[in-house]
Amino acid sequence: MNKRVGVWGAVALFLGCGLFPPAWSATALRLHPPDNQQLNFSALSAIVYEETGIRLEPDPSFADGDDPVDSLLDGSAELAIVENTRAFEPGLRSILPLYQSVVHIAVRKGLSIADFAGSERSLKLQIYHNSHTARMVLDLLFERASELPDRYELWQPGNPGNPDLLFYVGPINPHNTTWFPEGFTLVPLSRFDAAGAEFYIDGISFLVPQLRSTRIPALTYSLPGNEVGIDALAVDMLLVANKSTDQSAIYELTRVLMEQKPRFAAVEPTLFRWMGADFNARDLTFPLHRGARQYFDRDEPGFLERYAESLNFLVYLVVLMFTGAVAFGRWRARRRKDRIDGFYVRVRNLRRAAGFDDPKRLLSELEKIEDEAFTGLINERLAADDSFRIFTELAEGLRGELQSHIADDHATEPNQSVP
């Protein structure tokens, strides 16, 4: 542990000296690394800094053995590498799967599970670095394997005795076997559940979507048990960020990881050679960070391009409706004008008959025309516009003339009655 912290401190000093000119103003991101995998962090960080100007610094809480998820949540780190089997946390977002780790299982040589049947002795299990994936596989194994005893105890370094069974979750790396103790042998899961051998190969992803079957090829490790191929389970190791981490910094970090993959694979071929953008985001425990999603969707058509045909149809429909509304309005106005013209004709005919016909009858006809016109106005069959105003003025003028004729007739009636 102290050796790793020293390396991380040297890396931070190395990057802080400015040996590589940043492409723009530098951003510092604190990374909580996986404590079970020895990464060549100095070389990886140098590539990131050279391409983006982002300084990767070690999370100070790493030396205290803090959980990487807790470091993200309490703000001591902006980035962490965690197993995809971790429980969902609202404040965390995925960037991308970096590499895959494999569940390595080793048993003490000469161990017989039958020795624990009917015995008060518990099976001692060691889980390296408190791996959540190892705990998940352990629970699954004890649930399915009838040969295993009913109880077990977790063994930690410093506890009395030695473990009987150990779980190590890490990438397949024949150059890193410091976790493997003397007197043990590698075994597949079917070692304890022979009846479920096919399940661990073909059916595990249906029960636990975050896990998938893999195989450690024969002679990969110079370790007992690997003389033959070993069926195992794999889990993605996610690069995870706090939700509040700067979006542009995550975009640039995602870009350099994707575009400089050959350089990363050259430094850590066992880790980064399979890294790519062809993963399914729905299989990740944490949703994608906005910066990462922006990078992966950079070539996707925009909103206007994606819905161009629909928008064209909507615009056409709006124009069509507007044109129809304008045409309807004009038709209605013309119809109102035609109605008011009819009233003009009727009033004009009354005026022509004013000097010959009975003025009282003509006045009665005029009032009927006015009543009809105002009823049409109330029912919105006529508009209160200039045409209607002209009609009212015309009718009012005719009313005055007729009333004048009626008054004149009343004035002459007494004189006609004198003998």
Automatic annotation (TrEMBL):
Claim: Transmembrane is one of the keywords in the record: yes
Q: Which UniProt keywords apply?
A: Membrane, Transmembrane, Transmembrane helix
Report TM segments.
313-331
Q: Indicate yes or no for the key word NADP.
A: no
Give the protein name, as stated in the record: TAXI family TRAP transporter solute-binding subunit
Q: Which PANTHER family match?
A: SLL1037 PROTEIN
Q: Enumerate the Pfam families for this protein.
A: NMT1_3 (PF16868)
Q: Which domain of life is it from?
A: Bacteria
InterPro entries xrefs: TRAP_TAXI (IPR011852)
